[in-house]
Amino acid sequence: MPDLYIVATPIGNLEDITLRALRVLRESSLIAAEDTRKTIRLLAKYDIKTPMTSYYEHSKLTKIEYILSYLSKGDVALVSEAGTPGINDPGYKLIQEAIKRGIKIIPIPGPSVVVSALVISGLPTDSFTYLGFLPNKSGLRKKLLETVRNQSATLVTLEAPHRVKASLNDILSILGDRRVAICRELTKIHEEVYRGSVKQAIVHFAMPKGEFTLVIEGKHDKPVPEMTDEVEKCLITLHNNGIPAKEAIAILAKETGLSRKELYQKWLELKKSPI
Are 197 and 183 in contact (CB under 8 A)? Predict the structure, then answer.
């Protein structure tokens, strides 16, 4: 009996596809694609002529039977709009139905924006919770964030550009000013990874554009270090005592837990004003 292949495709850069994925796409009898416009570009780049059918959120109920019936003729490759099928897309429904009918399902591993963002975030990767897209409405968003407020695992979520600032404000309100890595347009021309606190990220992304993946530090018993008036006074004292910037910053980084980058920025700010 033919197989259903779950084929991971690039999240941006079309070169991020495995040799095995290309072979499966060529040899399958049909490609079921969430976004045929994007998949056509991929197939054209690698000169793949396999027939394709659309399979997206609003067509899944009518297309499932067609795709499953096609499996009597040959293998079918399922691809999502980007990345690994079955995560935040209609692919999981097709996979569920295929399992019920005893169809063999074969994963073709590859790109995932969730894993890509997590491993470059600089935050712990040994345990993480994926939240998918945060709810559109602030009330529901805050309710979801409350459920993970006390988790020590790193949190990963997706967000649309027009909701990034509102979501960051709700994250600040519910989770506090934690460390975050905001990943934008991963693997694309305008790729950006911003690392800092939630408050800093809110200021940085004044006019957010592109596709966002938010990686948020889990809860820790140790409070997140903050730049306080006391720390500023220590910087001033060290400066007035003739301690070099590098040495002063090393001392305070060890004592306060603040990053050397943040301390150095504050050192430069203080130097501009009389200290």
Answer: no
